[in-house]
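name: query_chain
kind: protein
chains: 1
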Amino acid sequence: MAKERLAPEVQTYIVQALACFDSPKTVADAVKAEFGVTITRQLVETYDPGKKASNRLAEKWVTLHSETRKAFLEDTSKIAISHRAVRLRALQRMAERAETMGNIALAAQLFEQAAKEAGDSYTNRRELTGKNGAPLPAAAPAVVLYQLPDNGRG
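structure:
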Protein backbone atom coordinates (compact mmCIF):
# COMPACT_ATOMS: atom_id res chain seq x y z
CA MET A 1 0.00 0.00 0.00
CA ALA A 2 1.46 3.37 -0.96
CA LYS A 3 2.17 5.97 1.66
CA GLU A 4 -0.27 8.43 0.09
CA ARG A 5 -3.16 5.99 0.51
CA LEU A 6 -2.77 5.63 4.27
CA ALA A 7 -5.23 7.65 6.29
CA PRO A 8 -3.68 10.54 8.24
CA GLU A 9 -4.55 8.89 11.57
CA VAL A 10 -2.68 5.74 10.48
CA GLN A 11 0.33 7.81 9.43
CA THR A 12 0.27 9.66 12.76
CA TYR A 13 0.07 6.35 14.62
CA ILE A 14 3.08 4.98 12.71
CA VAL A 15 5.23 8.08 13.31
CA GLN A 16 4.39 8.21 17.01
CA ALA A 17 4.99 4.48 17.54
CA LEU A 18 8.39 4.73 15.84
CA ALA A 19 9.23 7.76 17.98
CA CYS A 20 8.56 5.58 21.05
CA PHE A 21 11.17 3.07 19.80
CA ASP A 22 8.72 0.41 18.59
CA SER A 23 10.25 -1.79 15.89
CA PRO A 24 8.86 -1.65 12.33
CA LYS A 25 7.43 -5.16 12.75
CA THR A 26 5.72 -4.19 16.01
CA VAL A 27 4.28 -1.08 14.36
CA ALA A 28 3.05 -3.01 11.30
CA ASP A 29 1.36 -5.58 13.56
CA ALA A 30 -0.20 -2.83 15.68
CA VAL A 31 -1.54 -1.00 12.60
CA LYS A 32 -3.17 -4.26 11.46
CA ALA A 33 -4.74 -4.76 14.92
CA GLU A 34 -5.79 -1.11 15.43
CA PHE A 35 -6.92 -0.11 11.94
CA GLY A 36 -7.30 -3.39 10.03
CA VAL A 37 -4.73 -2.20 7.49
CA THR A 38 -1.94 -4.54 6.40
CA ILE A 39 1.36 -2.76 5.77
CA THR A 40 4.93 -3.93 5.37
CA ARG A 41 7.86 -3.23 7.67
CA GLN A 42 9.52 -1.49 4.75
CA LEU A 43 6.62 0.94 4.47
CA VAL A 44 6.81 1.61 8.20
CA GLU A 45 10.52 2.45 7.85
CA THR A 46 9.67 5.21 5.38
CA TYR A 47 8.15 7.10 8.33
CA ASP A 48 11.27 6.89 10.51
CA PRO A 49 13.45 10.01 10.05
CA GLY A 50 16.48 8.04 11.19
CA LYS A 51 16.26 5.61 8.25
CA LYS A 52 17.52 6.10 4.72
CA ALA A 53 14.12 4.98 3.40
CA SER A 54 12.55 8.17 4.80
CA ASN A 55 14.49 10.58 2.58
CA ARG A 56 11.24 12.03 1.17
CA LEU A 57 9.34 12.17 4.48
CA ALA A 58 7.24 15.32 4.85
CA GLU A 59 8.47 17.87 7.37
CA LYS A 60 5.26 17.58 9.44
CA TRP A 61 6.07 13.91 10.13
CA VAL A 62 9.69 14.68 11.00
CA THR A 63 8.48 17.35 13.45
CA LEU A 64 5.85 15.02 14.95
CA HIS A 65 8.48 12.29 15.37
CA SER A 66 10.88 14.69 17.08
CA GLU A 67 8.25 16.12 19.44
CA THR A 68 6.85 12.69 20.31
CA ARG A 69 10.31 11.26 21.01
CA LYS A 70 11.21 14.23 23.25
CA ALA A 71 7.98 13.87 25.24
CA PHE A 72 8.43 10.10 25.47
CA LEU A 73 11.96 10.37 26.85
CA GLU A 74 11.07 13.12 29.33
CA ASP A 75 7.93 11.55 30.77
CA THR A 76 8.26 7.96 31.91
CA SER A 77 5.26 8.33 34.23
CA LYS A 78 2.98 7.09 31.42
CA ILE A 79 4.84 3.77 31.31
CA ALA A 80 3.14 1.53 33.82
CA ILE A 81 6.13 -0.66 34.63
CA SER A 82 8.14 2.40 35.65
CA HIS A 83 6.07 2.54 38.86
CA ARG A 84 7.05 0.39 41.82
CA ALA A 85 3.44 -0.43 42.75
CA VAL A 86 2.75 -1.83 39.27
CA ARG A 87 5.87 -3.99 39.39
CA LEU A 88 5.03 -5.29 42.86
CA ARG A 89 1.47 -6.19 41.83
CA ALA A 90 2.78 -8.06 38.80
CA LEU A 91 5.33 -9.90 40.94
CA GLN A 92 2.58 -10.86 43.37
CA ARG A 93 0.40 -12.27 40.57
CA MET A 94 3.36 -14.25 39.21
CA ALA A 95 4.31 -15.56 42.66
CA GLU A 96 0.74 -16.66 43.40
CA ARG A 97 0.57 -18.44 40.05
CA ALA A 98 3.94 -20.12 40.62
CA GLU A 99 2.78 -21.35 44.04
CA THR A 100 -0.50 -22.65 42.60
CA MET A 101 1.46 -24.56 39.95
CA GLY A 102 3.73 -26.00 42.64
CA ASN A 103 6.81 -24.20 41.34
CA ILE A 104 8.19 -23.29 44.74
CA ALA A 105 11.66 -22.38 43.42
CA LEU A 106 10.21 -19.78 41.04
CA ALA A 107 7.91 -18.46 43.77
CA ALA A 108 10.89 -18.03 46.09
CA GLN A 109 12.79 -16.12 43.39
CA LEU A 110 9.80 -13.86 42.84
CA PHE A 111 9.47 -13.24 46.59
CA GLU A 112 13.14 -12.29 46.71
CA GLN A 113 12.75 -9.96 43.75
CA ALA A 114 9.70 -8.32 45.36
CA ALA A 115 11.64 -7.84 48.61
CA LYS A 116 14.47 -6.17 46.70
CA GLU A 117 11.97 -4.01 44.84
CA ALA A 118 10.30 -2.92 48.07
CA GLY A 119 13.66 -2.32 49.73
CA ASP A 120 15.00 0.07 47.07
CA SER A 121 17.57 -2.39 45.74
CA TYR A 122 16.72 -1.31 42.21
CA THR A 123 17.41 2.39 42.68
CA ASN A 124 20.58 4.44 42.52
CA ARG A 125 19.83 5.90 45.93
CA ARG A 126 22.46 5.11 48.54
CA GLU A 127 22.39 6.11 52.16
CA LEU A 128 25.72 5.99 53.92
CA THR A 129 25.82 5.80 57.69
CA GLY A 130 28.31 4.85 60.32
CA LYS A 131 28.07 2.04 62.85
CA ASN A 132 24.50 1.37 64.07
CA GLY A 133 23.12 4.09 61.79
CA ALA A 134 25.17 6.87 63.36
CA PRO A 135 26.39 9.68 61.14
CA LEU A 136 29.67 9.14 59.37
CA PRO A 137 32.69 10.65 61.13
CA ALA A 138 33.99 13.89 59.70
CA ALA A 139 36.52 13.44 56.95
CA ALA A 140 40.11 13.32 58.13
CA PRO A 141 41.95 16.56 57.48
CA ALA A 142 43.95 16.63 54.30
CA VAL A 143 47.67 16.02 54.53
CA VAL A 144 49.51 19.30 54.76
CA LEU A 145 52.90 19.56 53.07
CA TYR A 146 55.34 22.05 54.48
CA GLN A 147 58.16 23.59 52.50
CA LEU A 148 61.35 22.47 54.16
CA PRO A 149 64.36 24.76 54.14
CA ASP A 150 67.01 23.76 51.66
CA ASN A 151 69.76 24.21 54.25
CA GLY A 152 72.00 25.97 51.80
CA ARG A 153 72.02 23.19 49.20
CA GLY A 154 70.73 25.54 46.59
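note: The chain has a mean pLDDT of 86.
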